[in-house]
Structures are given as C-alpha cells and as structure tokens.
Amino acid sequence: MIKRVLKKQILKYFKQYPVVVLTGPRQSGKTTLVKKTFPKLTYVNLEDIEIRNFAQNDPKGFLKQYGDKLIIDEVQRAPELFSYIQVLVDEKRRNGLYLLTGSQNFLLMEKISQSLAGRAAILKLLPLSLEELKLSKKITEKEKIESILFKGFYPKLYNEKTDTDQYYSNYIQTYVERDARTMRNIANLGKFKRFISLLAARTGQILNVSSLINDGGINYKTAMAWLSVLEASYVIFLLEPYYKNYNKRIIKSPKIYFYDTGLVCSLLDISTANQLNAHYLKGGIFETFIISEIIKRYYNNAQKKNIFFWRDKTGHEIDLIIEQANKIFPIEIKSGQTVRQDFFKNINYYNNLSESNPKNSYIIYGGGQKQLGDKGNVISWRNLDILE
Question: Are residues 92 and 192 part of one domain?
Fold first, then answer.
C-alpha cells in the first residue's frame, strides 16, 4: 500500500473529535486509508444495498447494532443517520466515535452543517500526490513529466497493473451514471459527458460560461448546476482571482482546473504520453498538475488553502498567488524545459506594481534545474517541497 500523508491528520483528529469525516473523489483511496489506519474498528459500506436499506429504514437500530468506534463508508447514501449520530455523540460526550467517508461533498456538508456542526472534523483526500509517489518509490527521478501527466494520480493505477485508457473510460462512465445522477437529476447523460470534455479543453483557462452554453447546447441554469456537481464530486475546482488589487482593472472571473491530469488526457482523447509533447493544451495540463499538487499539500496537512491567480484587463497574469503569514508569493508556471528570460516578464510587472519582495517570487518549470536568489527563484516541478 502507498503510504498516505493524510493518515497523520486522521489519527490526530480522531482523538480530538467525536466524528471525523473523510471526503474526496471516488477511488482516491478513502476506504483503503481508513481501514488500514483503524483495522480494529467495525466497518460498514453503504454501497451494499442490504446494509443501506437497513440504515435508511431503521437508522436507530442500525447504529445500535454496529455500536460506536464505527467506520461508515459512503455515508451520504443514508442521510437519515446524521441526526441519530448527533444524539449519540451528545449523549456519550467522548471523542473517536465515528469515522465517516463520502465522495459527494455538498450532500455531506449539508448534513454536517445541520446535525454535526462543531462535532466533526472534516478532512479531504485527493488522488496521490507527487510526494507520496516519490516516498513510495512508485516513480523514479528519471520519470518524464509527460508520463506522469498522462497517467494521472489515482491509486489503482499504481497499486495494480491497470490499463490507463480503460481505467479512465470506466471511471468517467461510472461517475456519470452513478455519482452525477445521484446528486442531480441529469436527464441527458450524453450532453453531460460532452460538457465534461468541453471543460477539460479549458483547464487552466478563465471560466467562460457563455462559451460553454453555446458549445454544449445547454442553458445557463444547467451549466451552473453541472459545474456545481463537478465541483462537489472533486472532478474540477475553481481558482478565484486575487482581489487585494493594486489596479482596479482586474479580471473577476475564476479559472477552471481539474484535480487529475490523467482524467483530462482521457477526456481529450490523448492516448499516449508522447502525444502531450506537441499538444496545444500541454501548458494548461502542466499548470493543472502544479496547482493541484499544491492543493493536495494543503489538504494532506489539514490546512486552509489560500491560493489565487491574478490577471488584469491588459493581459498581465500571475498563474498562482500564495498568501501565507502576511506574505505574498507570486508564482509563474511554465511547461518548457529551458528557462527563458521572458518567463520573468509578468513576475517583474507584478512585483513592481505591488512592491513585493522579488525573493518571494517563483518560476516553476518543466525542466530539472534549481536557481534560488534574491531577484527570484526558478525551481523544477520535481522540487515543489521548496515552496514549504
């Protein structure tokens, strides 16, 4: 099993809260992680129809039968349980009672805010991080970035001999037919799948809902509903613009990204890693990889993410801004493997405008060298730990 960084936080919070909720995309490794972390806890999976029916029809009897110190997998499938869990938590007044997992975020969050507010710690498990793959020796130092972007980061691809194309094809099909339909009454699955592909072709770009409406043949209400479904199930995320502006003429729309680059490649019909070399969206896919890796680090350490992008209406843009301890770290992301002077153009513009310290600036690029200095830093995608 690949060791997951989040295990440390799960153990910590299970001692501090009566309920720990672990959420994240389907097949990110939630079930494996909780079962390996707590092998002595009773485990029930609400994907099992009989168990789910028991939980839905007799939630009080269900919880009485299984007792506390209980793992409930895919708990959002029996929302009836939450109010009864609340009662038991308030009666017993001790920590480490229930560990709940789920892959549909807004259904979970709605029930937690109604019944378990203040009683539950919420953690998020995304697919494998580059750090986890390196620690588990699933990739080598000689691994090419194109191979990593193409394969993506879902655990099954590294724990088993699984064909990448077939895996993502099945993943998309399962997601559309089961998860998406559960969250929203999506009548036209064909249009929904096309919508996801249209988003993949826009990863790393400013969200343009009008363009999606026109290309997808849907209305505004449907587009916004489908975006919320994809966000809630951890397929996509929106990166908001940095509003503490030094110029009122800034872009206010978010940028759209996918959590996993392998999924993007599949949706774009990229069938080999070599195809990425000449693909028009390689830069956007590389940018998607870097930003999702940084988000994984925040989530794996149970930290609030303070990341943004910045762009003004004249075209100057900073791909990523990290706000940390009252400091601003502007970061430009470049897929090229050779450092060029024009990589620093927007960084220099932003630093002059904001009067930021250049030594807090970074270029993350597709090559393998590292240059740290007072006028800015250049680091390889292999060395993201330097940003800590």
Answer: no
Give CA–CA dist 173/176, Å, rounded.
5
- Each residue's pLDDT tens digit, 218-266: 999 999 999 998 998 899 999 999 977 555 567 789 999 999 999 999 9
Distance in angstroms (rounded) separating the CA atoms of residues 295 and 301:
10
Strand pairing class (42-45; 19-23): unpaired
The pLDDT assigned to 388 comes to: 66
- Backbone torsions φ then ψ of 342, nearest 5 degrees: -70, -10
Whether the CB-CB separation of 43 and 67 falls below 8 Å is answered with: no
Instruction: Tell me how far the alpha carbon of residue 55 is from its chain's centroid.
Output: 29
Are 162 and 171 in contact, with CB atoms under 8 Å apart?
Answer: no
Put the strands of the sheet holding 255-258 in their side by side order. 205-206, 255-258, 236-239
Separation CA 262–CA 273 (nearest Å): 10
CA distances from 1 to 33, 43, 128 (A): 9, 19, 12
Each residue of 59-114: pLDDT tens digit? 999 999 999 899 999 998 898 999 999 999 999 989 999 999 988 766 677 778 78
In eight-state DSSP terms, residue 4 is P
Q: pTM of the predicted model, to two decimals?
A: 0.93
Contact indicator for 28, 127 with CB cutoff of 8 Å? yes
Domain span at residue 277? 141-388
In a domain, 136, yes or no: no
User: 307 with 242: CB under 8 angstroms?
Assistant: no
CATH of the domain at 107: 3.40.50.300
Please tell me which residue, 312 or 243, carries the higher pLDDT value.
312
Strand locations in 132-266 (E): 205-206, 236-239, 255-258
**CA distances (Å), origin 171, targets 26, 164, 222, 297:** 9, 10, 23, 24
In a domain, 133, yes or no: no
Whether the CB-CB separation of 69 and 101 falls below 8 Å is answered with: no
**Max Cα distance, the chain (Å):** 67
> d(Cα 267, Cα 338) in Å, to the nearest integer?
29
One domain for residues 172 and 205: yes
* Across 159-163, average pLDDT: 88
